Each structure stands twice: as C-alpha cells, then as structure tokens.
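Subject: Sanity check before I submit

Could someone independently write out the structure tokens for this chain? I want to compare against mine line by line before I put it in a report. The sequence has 242 residues.
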Amino acid sequence: MRPFLLLASRPEDEAADDEYAAFLRATGLDESGLRRIRLEAGPLPPLDLDDYAGVFLGGGPFNSSDPAEGKSAVQRRVEAELSALLDEVVARDLPFLGACYGIGTLGVHQGGVVDRTHGEPVSCVPVSLTGAGRVDPLLAGMPEVFDALVGHKEACRVLPPSAVLLATSAGCPVQMFRVGRNVYATQFHPELDVAGVVTRVRVYQHAGYFPPAEMEDLIARVSQAVVTEPSRVLANFVARYG
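---
Independent answer below. Compare away.
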C-alpha cells in the first residue's frame, strides 16, 4: 500500500510531534504509512504525488490573511510551495485533506475570501452537516451534529466558487468543504482530542489565541469536552483512498 503524506509547519517540536501522533492515532496508520515533512524546517523536496495515497496538511502558526509585509521569509516560502502543490492536487483531483491552516490555504487557492471575521477561540463547538455533507463519503457514519475542537484566528468567510459546503457552525459558517471529488478541507481539527488541545494551549499560550493569564481556566473548560466523532473523517479518508 502506498503511504500517506502529512505536511506540517509547526516549529515547536512538542506541538509538531503531538500533531503527528494525533494523525497516526486517528488514521490508524503507523509511521511507515504516514510520512511527515516539516515545511518550516526547509524547502519542500521534489515530490511525485503518485508515490502517495493521499496528502494531509496540518495546522500551524501561519495565517493566509496575514498582511504581506508582516509575513516572514519562511511563511512566504511555505505559501508558495503549497500553492504550487495545490495546482497539481486540484488539477488532478488527488486525495487531499487540509485541517485548519489547510482550509485557509485551499480557500485562498480556489478564490475564496479568508479573513478574521469568523475566528473562533479555543473551544469545543457543535458542527452541523449540510445536505451535501450528509451524503459525502468522507462523512459516512457521522451524526448530523457533532462536537469538534476549534481554535483559529482566521476562517473562510466566502466559500470558493469551486467548493461544496459540507459542514457549518453558528460561529463559523464554513467548517468543511470539498473541491472536485477528492480535495477536502476542514476548519475544525479532526485529529484533536482533549489531551491534544491541552498540549497546544500550553505550547501556544503566548501566540495570541487567548490572554496567557487565562490559560488554566481555558484548560479547565476544554477539559470538560467530550469529542468522539471528528477523527472519523481521517479514518474515512484512509479507508477510501488507502
């Protein structure tokens, strides 16, 4: 079986390794079945996408809507590399699933509007499937409403014209969409469980997602969440394309 590929961009080793472990758990893959490239660490090596069953793009510190003058050289490089990769992914309709940063990246690539209108604090929110979502194979077995973990400064305000809306929520209208038959993105984190979000809260306490003095209260709140369904999206992706 061809492996899957995880493209990551978290510079903090603790957060990066915890994200990789979360994707391994949710997909049921081992390290030979889910290869990781850390985009922030250096230029993306030449890829033959035919070598992979599918591509995941994880979250990270970059925001697609950051002002151009404020983007670091690393962020500009990563954005250019991902844009070129998505040119091929979308043109060939290759299996792809971007989470959080992935929805901003794919949204911009496909002509949507990504800005800070619908940013959400770190929290657990109810996500609702649309009519298209209820019949999409990647959401097979999902309840029509499920709880998911979120935490993002930007979101897709205007759906790309090429996209089909699959999931929504009260605070963030675009929680998941599909382009073509096989290219997906989620705003919520399908890989995250409560332990994972607590790790990220601690790692990113000074990253502007919340006042650092409120960290322990935030951890206490999110620790009450019961999140069981979102990882099914990743398991379905592997079952469909593996």
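---
OP: Matches mine. For the report I'm noting this point. Residues 4-241 form a domain with the Rossmann fold fold (CATH 3.40.50.880).
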